[in-house]
Write a structure and sequence with these properties.
This protein is 71% helix and 2% strand. By secondary structure, it is mostly helical. A hairpin with a 2-residue loop joins strand 3 and strand 4 (209-210). Helix 4 (66-91) runs parallel beside helix 9 (223-240).
């Protein structure tokens, strides 16, 4: 083999970097998704297709006000937290499709704390978030326990617990009463929950910095900052602790991990508990959000699973389950969704969901591309080692 020049060596060094390959795979997935989305728009409404893409990106950015940016960051919060929930289970080789049930149970727990525990003062929102996390962890325990103890596949059990959680929450919300016998959580006139009192709202000020002053008129609160901190915490747990190493070892090869002394059953159960806790926190951050004008959030007791948990799967897949990548993936998907909302004057805003869906499908193709590059580099290194020295 001939000697490689500086350019070839640099290219191979870049391509051998796993982080760069992951970023490249995600970028390819985004490009493929956008191209397919454009083709669909050309078929559905050709006269507005290019204007729609322009509005989705260029015009959305050029007309972005502090209000729009703050609301975009606010809507990214649940995507980031739910993405972390799904990704944490992915790292242990588990598919937590039950994040939406854990999110719903956490939402109820935070709602109850916000409505009933009125004597906590300025800590009421924080207690609500913590209780929401505990409720989500409790709901995540069951699929993890059934997987580790009885080898029941977590996809089956978590889907079942999605529906159990939804129906249980709907029942509790419509039946919990106060000391006077009145419904405490449910507004029967509108078929939805009451808005929590303002004392339970997630604050908008972080260490003296008022986020609503930076993004006036937007929905933003410190929930977005909490989501970023959770991503950093998950990164630290997974990549800087022995516990995280054991979880990832189970995800790579649980038989080899078990042979090396890792308690597989413990890792599976704890992974689902932590994953559930993250999803529960996401539910708490949603129901305790103040929104613009302090209108708050509500939950409608309809027999339909909430989409947030499934959106978390999209974020985790696009970010290849890396905690830092999930921040960027959550921001990107939220950006597409918000752009689709403003694009609906030109074309149906559901096209944004179609684009996101194709981006996720394209992620599988880009992963194949990443694997092919890795295999090619490995083959090149092997051939170079076999080459006789002169």
């Amino acid at each position: 083999m001939k000697e490689m020049n500086w350019f070839e060596r640099t290219i191979r060094k870049i391509l051998s970097n796993r982080g760069f390959l992951s970023l490249l795979a995600t970028f390819i997935a985004i490009i493929i998704g956008l191209i397919i989305g454009l083709v669909i728009m050309l078929i559905a409404k050709p006269q507005n297709a290019f204007a729609g893409i322009e509005y989705l990106f260029g015009r959305w950015l050029s007309t972005a006000t502090p209000t729009r940016i703050g609301t975009w960051l606010h809507y990214s919060t649940s995507l980031i937290v739910l993405g972390l929930s799904v990704a944490f289970a992915f790292k242990t080789g588990l598919f937590n499709i039950g994040a939406t049930g854990q999110y719903t149970v956490g939402l109820f727990a935070a709602l109850y704390v916000g409505m009933a525990w009125t004597g906590l003062g300025q800590f009421q929102w924080l207690v609500g978030i913590l209780i929401a996390g505990l409720a989500g962890a409790f709901w995540g325990f069951f699929p993890g326990f059934f997987k580790s103890r009885f080898k029941v596949h977590e996809v089956i059990s978590s889907i079942m617990f999605n529906y159990i959680g939804m129906y249980l929450v709907n029942f509790l919300i419509t039946n919990v009463r106060n000391g006077s016998g009145e419904l405490m959580l449910f507004d029967s006139s509108f078929g939805r929950t009451f808005v929590v009192p303002s004392s339970s709202y997630v604050p908008t000020t972080f260490f003296g910095i008022d986020l609503r002053a930076i993004f006036p008129g937007s929905d933003i609160d410190i929930g977005f900052i909490i989501a970023i901190l959770l991503a950093l915490l998950v990164f630290f747990i997974l990549y800087k602790t022995k516990f995280g190493f054991e979880l990832r070892a189970c995800g790579y090869n649980r038989h080899a991990a078990q042979y090396s002394g890792v308690n597989e059953n413990r890792s599976i159960t704890l992974s689902m508990i932590i994953s559930g806790a993250l999803a529960g926190i996401g539910g708490g951050l949603f129901i305790l959000a103040s929104r613009a004008g302090n209108v708050g959030n509500i939950y409608k007791t309809v027999d339909v699973l909430l989409p947030e948990g499934f959106n978390g799967i999209s974020v985790a897949l696009l970010a290849l389950s890396h905690p830092i990548g999930i921040i960027l993936a959550g921001l990107f998907i939220s950006f597409i969704q918000r752009g689709g909302f403003f694009m609906q004057t030109l074309i149906k805003n559901e096209i944004a969901d179609v684009i996101v869906a194709f981006i996720i499908y394209a992620s599988a193709i880009s992963l194949i591309f990443q694997t092919r590059i890795s295999n090619w580099l490995l083959k090149q290194r092997t051939e170079k080692k076999k080459e006789p020295k002169t």
